[in-house]
Design brief:
The chain has helices at about 1-25, 35-40, 70-75, 85-95, 100-115, 120-125, 135-145, 150-155, 165-190, 205-215, 220-230, 240-250, 255-265, 275-290, 295-310, 325-340, 345-360, 375-380, 390-410, 425-435, and strands spanning about 55, 60-65, 65. It has about 450 residues and is mostly helical. It has a domain at about 275-380: Cytochrome P450-Terp, domain 2 (Cytochrome p450-Terp, domain 2). Bound molecules: N-hydroxyamidocarboxymethyldethia coenzyme *A.
Amino acid sequence: MILHEKISAQLPAWRERIKALSKEHADVVVDKVTVGQIAGGMRDIKSLLTDVSYVDSSEGIRFRGLSIPEVLKRLPKARGTKIPLVGGLYYLLMVGEVPTMEEAMAVEDEWDKRAEIPDYVYKMLKTMPKDAHPMILLNLAVMSLERNSVFSKRYREGMKKDEYWEPALEDSLDLTAKIPVIAAFIYRYKYFGEKKKPIYRVKLDYGANFARMMKVADKKGYAELARLYFILHSDHESGNVSAHATHLVGSSLSDIYFAYSAGLSGLAGPLHGLANQECLGWLLDVHKKFGGVPSRDDLYKFAWDTLHSGKVIPGYGHAVLRVPDPRFTAQMEFAKARFPDDDLVRLADMVFDVVPTVLKEQGKAKNPAPNVDAISGTLQHYYGVREFDFYTVLFGVGRALGVTANYVWSRALGMPIERPKSLTTKMLEDVVAKAIQPGG
Ligand code: HAX
């Protein structure tokens, strides 16, 4: 299997580099930790190691060194399409190199072989109450697949530490192959009452399969959006909640089913994956209130009203980025190239013009620019996927690609169990008292 071959060939050199760092230079200081960071969600503390992606505050995400425009330009595309194959992106994340068409297709072929979902998973999902949140259904399905984990089986049989990454890769390919099928089933079952299992067609790629299984009216366009969406949402360094939760749980040698399930639970939170539905909700509120796209002045007042009512403007601001998110830009370009006259696209574009000014005038947000969520729901809405609570599931399908690549490499490089140290409030107060006393 190509990913196995390619990772295997790189491993000795990577292991040497990690060994040199952790054995010979273990005492070199990388960062200092302030009281504000401890009290403030560990923001910006440089303490995680990943080579899969990196977020530069002035540039945005780079996957294995490639910016979003580079990824979209350089990864192989199926004939007649403009957005790269998701298999090529997975190859890039896993291997660290831009694949050829054959290499991207080799990943797509692996997914074809592994996309079948055992019947008991469907049965279990159908026993759930109708009002169960789609993220619960996705998470349950993932957990129910854990019994097939090759990693856990091999661990019980006593595999060597050096071999951990191999069944981790097997599990990751199985899981990423199955997730879009489960997600599409959840969509058709929950909102349309369809009980039939979706069929993954070997002749179609990951994005086209997803569009077909979702039965979105304009399948061709939606396949392109699915590819774009999964690529853009795949990874965002390892400190965000879904990536970090997956990494943390994986560090205890729980298999990827347990680890990704933890990541999904984090993604379900309003400050993380849920933000895209809130953003679309805000745009629709504007649209409804003004009976269409408002004037610039009306939008300006509406944005201020949102802030005055104590709410944030969803889709704007970011913990790390200090420029417009290139994932926003890529999606806006996609929309403007295909459906520039859509009301919500025109509105999202006007919001992009007005809201940064409002946030700058308010002077609180460190970054008044749009993040990925400012537009992603608008695109789904255009293609007819209008069930808001499903959007986090879509995010989860994409995020599986990044967290599994990280999981495989963490096992390959023998990353240890995570165990940061806690302090009590009194201890922190004592540190402060000592620091502020004269001569302290
Ligand atoms: N609207 C209004 N106020 C905002 C704001 C926004 N869009 N963004 C930041 N602020 C405010 C903060 O609430 C904070 O106010 P207080 O001092 O009163 O608490 C102040 O500006 C400083 O915040 P910050 O340091 O710039 O931003 P944070 O790192 O604390 O938070 C958030 C980053 C993304 C959570 C924040 O910008 C926000 O709430 N944005 C709106 C919600 C949103 O778009 N979330 C999706 C983020 C993308 C993502 O990770 N998706 O998974």
